[in-house]
Amino acid sequence: MRDALVAAAFQLFLERGYEQTTVDDIVALAGVGRRSFFRYFPSKEDVVFPDHERCLADMTAFLAESGEAEEPVHRVCDAARLVLRMYAENPTFSVQRYRLTKKVPGLRAYELSVVWRYERALAEYLRTRFTGRDGTLQADVIAAAVVAAHNNALRSWLRSDGKGDSDAAVDHALGYVREAFGGAPPAHRGGEQPEDVVVVVSRRDAPLWRVVQEIESALGRN
After folding, report:
1. What backbone torsions phi and psi does residue 41 show, to the nearest 5 degrees?
2. pTM of the prediction?
3. What is the pLDDT of residues 73-104, one digit of tens each?
């Protein structure tokens, strides 16, 4: 029934437009009642993103299963690939959703809220690994970089109508994140202090990931 509701919704969205389609229209085409619709989807917006809750749960479980031996940056990159896998499971649907979301401001806002939840899940995991000085900052910056790189590659694949190599595109994008942050050790723990001081000169408007990359280069950690 859930799949039937999604199929009916997108058929109507393509035929009539998102704003012109009501929940009553969707349930009528699917042959079910309104109660059945709201059993699966809290709102009309949710039917556009029917698989994100499952994917977020899978990502959270994947990160929770991580051991101490796992390199944290590599782990969150692998977690981001779960989102790619979800999109790649049904390229036709994913492309249709991408096109629809671009046209409807409300759906773009909803999508941003979904992306933020993925980023928060990555950051929360990283905070457990980077617990020392600047650990939270390090976790948040890396999580944002992973999401930005993943989404850049994902959108490129969607713009190709799902015909390109999605795995290669995302691997290439995440490679920048791993190169910039993958070799960085956890921040200093407790009262430990670094034994030396490194001064890096950078442009004021340089992105934070670039500044961190320059610091790592100065420390010989590339």
Report:
1. -135, 125
2. 0.76
3. 999 999 999 999 999 999 999 999 999 999 99
CA distance 150 to 217: 24
**CATH 1.10.10.60 residue ranges for the chain:** 1-47
Q: What would the CATH number be for the domain defined by 49-188?
A: 1.10.357.10
Contact 107, 142 (CB under 8 A): no
Contacts (Cβ under 8 Å, ≥6 apart) of 65: none
1-47 CATH fold = Arc Repressor Mutant, subunit A (1.10.10)
